[in-house]
Amino acid sequence: MPQAWEIENFLDVHNSQLYIDGISAVELARENGTPLFVFSEKRIRHNIRRLQSAQDAIGCPLKVCYAAKALSTMAILKAVKNAGCDVEVNSGGELWKALKIGFHGSQIIFNGTSKETWEIENAVNAEIYAIQVDSLYELSLIEGIAKRLGKKANVSLRLVPEIETDTHSGLQTALLTSKFGMMPDEAFAAFRNYRDSPHLDMCGIHLHVGSQNPDPGVYSKALSVLFDGMLRIFSETGIKLKHINLGGGFPINYLRDESRYLRTPPRIAEKLRTLVSSETERRRLPPEALKSLESQAAHQRMLSADFEPLDAIGDAWTHIRHRAAEANSEYLLANLTILLEPGRSIISDTGICLTSVRNSKIRPLSEINRELTRKLEQTPQPPSPPGLSFGVSVISRSFVRGDITGEHWLLTDAGFNILLSMETYKWFYDLISAERPDETHDFPYKVAGPLCDGGDVYFDVEGQNRLPPYRMLPDNVKPGEILALLNCGAYSLAQASQYNGRFLPAVVLIQENGKTELIRKRDVFEDLTANDRY
């Protein structure tokens, strides 16, 4: 029976090993060393086609622009371009990389809050599809630069729509409290004031709803805001927009196997579900315990979000068509182009990080788990809510197995220097044994990375239930065993650093034809000081 994390023709088990696109992950690790990132070109193409299929649900052209910030390694950008996808950049560096790999100006859009003069100059000279304008000041700056260069800049104004979503707080980009964009009234005034500028083509409007949104309805809200903006701009200025940009990524299901995210005993897990869902039980809980449970549930909903982009965009477009018909403004939708800016949903599940266990040790079982074990042994039923005052949050983050008398620690060579989101956002990347993926993963380990930092761990060290208390792997994992972190292609290698003087990892791309290519070499000592002067 396939494992929950398996993806047909991509992640499979063969010969009792993890295979990626038909190639042994263990052999890749042994040939290239660890930590090692492995990406699948075939999966990148699959994910892009999935997004482009939303074209079938709307009555206008769709332009999918890969968010390069998710990962801009040159070979990955090339794979994205070869798959027929456009690109969204967030800096002059990403713009330079996109142009160098072969993207044409018409395939590039440029976001960002703090663009420098040279970045704007390069964007204008490259005649990119649109510079996403973050403020009135930036708009005046772009006009001045375009005038000096004797060119006309394509611009799209970024709005703050005040749309709250159920994603991580750090991914909320559509609120007044976020740093992005301009107030709608400012933008509409700008269309009036600059409509006759010979150096600006006011061709679109843009908003961004963040990524990993669990509710597909957010795209209908966002498209409604954009439609209202189109309507107002046309009525006040006569400008018919060429495009609207529905920025933000679609979710990836990081919890395909939820059983390894929360490993509370079944009786306790059922009690917790009852507590969260029952208003009577909720009132009996201490406020801090209830807050912990709700936070845990919301984080899990976000990580397990999963819906088809075609359905979300299709529903949003149907809603807009009805509104346009009611307002007798269907003409605004004619020849309109819709832009999307997905990054995570294109690259996240295409990347696997292979890491080796370098050290192991056993510590006494914590006092919390000893106390919980005692309570479970003394009662055949879950404790009543008053009995949970010793900590509902404790129970929800504790794993108990009677035959385990100590905490088993595994220390790997992959830390948050290459998996930063696991520390900053407490992001969950499923962890399996690449050497024994078909064995039962039911032994709890405290897994941590190599950095000289107490937060460099793969489990819940903060006590907020946003990561599991243990990581479940086969029994008797020893130093030397290869483990695999799944779904970590986005915002991992892109944010990697040489913290602690550690080498940035090698990266292998499995090409569509099944051949492997080393697309980034592992650092050597000289790379640690390449830009130093001493």
Overview of this protein structure:
The chain has helices spanning 25-32, 41-52, 74-82, 92-101, 117-125, 136-149, 184-194, 217-237, 266-277, 279-284, 287-303, 309-326, 344-347, 367-378, 392-396, 421-424, 525-528; strands at residues 11-14, 17-20, 23-24, 36-40, 62-67, 86-89, 108-110, 130-133, 153-158, 200-208, 243-247, 337-340, 351-364, 406-412, 431-433, 443-448, 471-473, 482-485, 506-510, 516-520. The protein is α/β, with parallel strands linked by helices. The strands form three sheets. Strands 4, 13, 14, 15, 16, 17, 18, 19 and 20 form a nine-stranded mixed beta sheet that branches. An eight-stranded parallel β-barrel has the order 5-6-7-8-9-10-11-12, surrounded by seven helices. A three-stranded antiparallel beta sheet has the order 1-2-3. A hairpin with a 2-residue loop joins strand 2 (17-20) and strand 3 (23-24). Helix 4 runs parallel beside helix 5, helix 7 (184-194) packs parallel to helix 8 (217-237) and helix 8 (217-237) runs parallel beside helix 12. It is globular, with a radius of gyration of 25 Å. The chain starts with 10 loop residues before the first strand and ends in a 6-residue tail after the last helix. Mean pLDDT is 86; it is low at 168-172, 263-268 and 379-400.
